[in-house]
Design goal:
- The protein is α/β, with parallel strands linked by helices and about 400 residues long.
- It folds into two domains: about 100 residues, Urease, subunit C, domain 1; about 280 residues, Metal-dependent hydrolases (TIM Barrel, Alpha-Beta Barrel), CATH 3.20.20.
- Strands 1, 2, 3, 4, 5, 14, 15 and 16 form an eight-stranded mixed sheet that branches. Strands 6-7-8-9-10-11-12-13 form an eight-stranded parallel sheet.
- The model has no long low-confidence stretch (mean pLDDT about 95).
- It binds N-(iminomethyl)-L-glutamic acid and fe (iii) ion.
Length: about 400
Amino acid sequence: MTVVGWTNIGELATADPTAGEGPLGIVRDAAVVAVDGRIAWIGPASEFPDVDVSHDMAGAAMLPGFVDAHMHPVFAGDRAAEFDARMTGTPYSAGGIRTTVAATRAASDEQLMANAARLSSEALRQGTTTIEAKSGYGLTVHDEARSLVAARSVTDETTFLGAHVVPAEYADRPDDYVDLVCGEMLDACAPHARWADVFIERGAFDADQARRILEAAKAKGLGLRVHANQLTQGDGVRLAVELGAASVDHCTHLGDDDIEALAGSGTVATLVPGAEFSTRSTYAPARRLWDAGVTVAIASDCNPGSSYTTSMPLMVALAVREMGLSPAQAVWAATAGGAASLRRDDVGVVAPGRRADLIALDAPSHVHLAYRPGVPLVSGVWRAADRVG
Ligand code: NIG
Ligand code: FE
């Protein structure tokens, strides 16, 4: 049995509103003890017990490791030229995905795994202790299956996204591609995936095609996630809610009926402000969603086209500055919200029984994540009580 403890935590943000002040459940002058990688005790620093390994936090803030519930880390190449053109006026469109598909198909398995490993360790250094990883840049049976094997090498939260865009070779027969995704591709990919996802958008898949794919995936035992309402206000949010998806992601363009549907549902709205930042889009209405009672998560959407960043601290800053969340709400959305999006009850919150995934800030409060944007404030990262960053 190994007992690890952290004491003299100036501000412990538990992300459990029942454990302390505000939506982040803040406890001051706190200590935490973990036994064999799980949190066993939270209490005042003055009652810190004897432990095997002790960390004196000297008044620093601590919070749960970030849970990034939306990443696309399996790809090759980059699209810096596309970004450059976008910054001088060329709009973002779903079609750019095909550039990365060509590079991904040409890459070896080792290159795909190395890219996923590079991005997951980049995320870890910035405090992300749980990630989701999608396929979606292979778009053949073989390339999607090997993309998921690469995703599995960095996380158990793997998502089959064969329905990312219709590949060029199927451009004039998209329904044949949907048949492939629902049939042979799903059969080959399901053993490597926990989730299935569809990009519902003009230029990608419509609601009828998405329904077929999501129902086939559900029948195979996969949980559902959806990319919806990113570029236009379509039917994706309502379809995701109807099918009981765990999460509907982006939610940039929403009507009142979309918000109402989400509010009465078990579907989390996973917002990805990095995509809006990097495509010069308007931002998702996070504050309206939160006030309507929707469970909100924020995630990086790390991908080479619309959001080439792994930084959850940046997502917190954007959610506060651009989306109207308070710092406490934004940090909750990046931790407990991400865990809800992945239907996980073992991460995202500092509470007895949860995995001891903790981060320390070189700052006295979580507020500094938004107040000091762009500054590398994460000074310590522990996963299951092991120091990993
Ligand atoms: O989440 N929207 C679809 N997929 C990604 C973008 C992928 C790309 O542009 O390569 C996203 O933004
Ligand atoms: Fe995405």
